[in-house]
Amino acid sequence: MFAHLARHRELQYNLIRSHAAGVGTPLSPEKTRMLLALRINVLAKGHSGISLNALNTLIAAFNASCLSMVPEQGSVGASGDLAPLAHLALGLLGEGEMWSPKTGWENANKVLEAHGLKPLKLSAKEGIALINGTQLITSLGAEAVERAYIIALQADVVAALTLEVLKGTSRAFDSDVQLIRPHKGQIEVARRLRALLHSEMYPSQIAESHRFCNRVQDAYTLRCCPQVHGIVHDTIDFVEGVITVEINSGTDNPIVFAERGEIISAGNFHGEYPAKALDYLAVGVHELASMSERRIERLVNPALSELPAFLVKDGGLNSGFMLAHCTAAALAIELLAACQAIEFLRPLKTTVPLEEVYNVVRNSIRLRKKTAALKEVYNVVRNSIR
Q1: Helix/strand/coil (H, E, C) string of 41-92?
Q2: How far apart are the first and last CA of the chain?
Q3: 66 near 115, Cβ under 8 Å?
Q4: CA-CA distances (angstroms) from residue 165 to 222, 242, 301, 313, 350?
Q5: What's the whole-number mean pLDDT along residues 188-194?
Q6: 30, 53, 143, 293 - which has most CB atoms within 10 Å?
């Protein structure tokens, strides 16, 4: 690279063109607009070594909704979002495709021209400044946090409705119960459930109808909503904090400290913080889905709900909500697979020796009709490893 410093301007364009190697479905205009907004925010912090003219070009494109075609796949996070951000910059150079409300998808140069804008002209450092950072992870993460908040609030409402239908009790949501285990999310969810059920001031007719029943306590999926939903709310709050810091951070490399007259190569481009936080968010959202699926099973199971099977009269002739529960179960399993980062339809194979161990265990362990010690299983696995 140092042999070509005299051609630094050409290098900036080459960096963007060579790194624009993403594949897959293009991001929607809304997601691309978020991505561009966050990139502008990072560059405006003054640690990227980009000119004011270049920054103003990005702002003008944002205001006109001139949005580059950005494929959704190609980022691994460890080096930031190089490929997606390169595609974002490519359109601003007048190359590739862009979208705007006025033109739809069109040649980038024509889209810019239709809005009276000129392609971005790059100087030294500006190529890498445009493509180095975590803004794709962060923008999609911010959307995920917002959607998770909505889902979590809806889950609380659905849980309250289900409790009523299944003739559950709100006693487990008593405020003093929560105060002796004072997690923020648990307290808030219990308070929300009490408010929805009006259990203290305005108990419902359904609640009154079984006030003196002989049931000691409800199933976990009803009784433990404050604890399970509560930690999900706390998880979302935690992830929001990480994403908020990331949105407002300098994530370029190298980093320019103009006031010190120094340029430092460092690792702020690494996507570990938002990636790990979003993995945590995925686990939390799955917990809501898992609880919801189990409550649906109780609703359609007459042995548990005291309601008609699958919530329909004339069972057999009518299937009712049978397949609705099947769909819920399928989605819950798919979410579980997604938050473990494994293939849903066919788990990825491991190494040949481990696959052989797996097959030996599967062929050697007999199906059991009743509970038994697991020593035989352990012995087969141990001998296979030897």
Answers
A1: HHHCCCCCCCCHHHHHHHHHHHHCCCEECCEEECCCEECECHHHHHHHHHHH
A2: 51
A3: yes
A4: 11, 38, 13, 17, 46
A5: 96
A6: 293
